[in-house]
UniProtKB/TrEMBL annotation:
It comes from the Bacteria. This is Uncharacterized protein.
Amino acid sequence: MTGFMHPVNLSCRFDPLGETYRSLQNADTSRSIIAEEAWRIRERYFPADVVFRVGVLDLSRVAVPVLDLAMSLEFAVKMLAMEGAAAVDSPGSSWRVGLERSGDAVTVSCGHDSRKSECSFADLAQAVGLFMRGTLDNLTEICPDLLLNDEIARLFRESGARHLGRDQAQRYARAVEARYRSV
């Protein structure tokens, strides 16, 4: 690569009026998600349009299970730090992102062609962390009962989302209180 570090842009757009999100307004649906295993929540719920760009390399996707993508990216950053290489793919599709670290530089490649771009490891890690935190904040705002699911509550805590502001802290506190009342 050229050695020029490109900025990382990673964000998502939810459609709270979409069918998936409207169904979460139904208390029975919302409560049934709480009992779901984390992998089902991760892979089957919460589609969103994701913008993922590193410089001019556009890896954006439409209607992707956003929690699955956020968790996969977070894991890939950890593998990148430990092993120097990682990949993120989407089951059932040809979408694949390759990541290779050399020092602080990360080469990001698109799996189905030869396009590549380079960013700093710190920028990628920050973008992925902020993406995870923002995703969890948005999802628990749409469906606060998600915080009653142990795995989602753990992810919310670890992402730092409960420290974003009073609303997030209260959302988490209500979930913890509801959990203790049900025991």
